[in-house]
Design brief:
With about 180 residues, the chain is mainly alpha-helical. It has helices at about 10-20, 30-35, 40-45, 50-60, 75-85, 90-100, 105-115, 120-145, 160-180.
Length: about 180
């Protein structure tokens, strides 16, 4: 039987599945190649580096974020980003690492910018970073609880997560509105 041929989409889909199974720390090019039944060097035909692969994975994680549109309310855009990140194990960490290297995630940032009337890039970037940090905190806490590394207690930030998230998004919306010229 001839070897299976892979394209960028199938490599990203397999990387996403592995990410959900093993998490970001154990998602290596070698493990991905083994899963695809190819030599690790074959992956570099599709992606120049692991960072480029993770950028494609980040874009795939964020694919459910609505297309940038000034009519989409800011809370809806913010929640869609958070929900997309939460839908994938270590989703916030993958997107954050890609964002830090400026390799992807533009769709989410552009959607936030338009929801903030398209003129306050610093506020859109700050809100995106808030969403990433907030979601990463939740994902790390949930992972720690799932493996028994921490017990539920009063210091657990997850019970009030929705209220904290809403307050953060509303704060950014108000700040942006005040900064707009009259």
């Amino acid at each position: 039987m001839p070897p299976t041929r892979h394209d960028r989409l199938s490599v990203v889909a397999t990387a996403l599945r592995l990410l959900d199974e093993v998490g970001l720390p154990d998602l290596s090019m070698r493990r991905l190649a083994t899963e695809l039944d190819v030599q690790p060097s074959a992956l570099y035909w599709h992606f120049a580096s692991k960072q480029e692969l993770l950028a494609a994975v980040a874009d795939s994680i964020l694919r459910t974020v609505p297309e940038p549109d000034a009519r989409t309310p800011l809370p809806e855009v913010a929640r869609s980003i958070r929900d997309a990140l939460l839908a994938c194990r270590d989703g916030a960490e993958v997107v954050l690492s890609t964002y830090a290297l400026r390799l992807g995630a533009r769709r989410a940032q552009d959607a936030l910018l338009l929801a903030l009337d398209g003129e306050d890039q610093p506020a859109a970037d700050a809100l995106f970073e808030f969403i990433l940090g907030h979601t990463m905190l939740l994902q790390q806490r949930m992972h720690a609880q799932s493996i028994g590394a921490t017990a539920s207690d009063d210091a657990d930030p997850t019970p009030d997560a929705e209220a904290v998230f809403t307050a953060g998004v509303n704060g950014f919306a108000e700040l942006s509105a005040r900064r707009r010229p009259s």
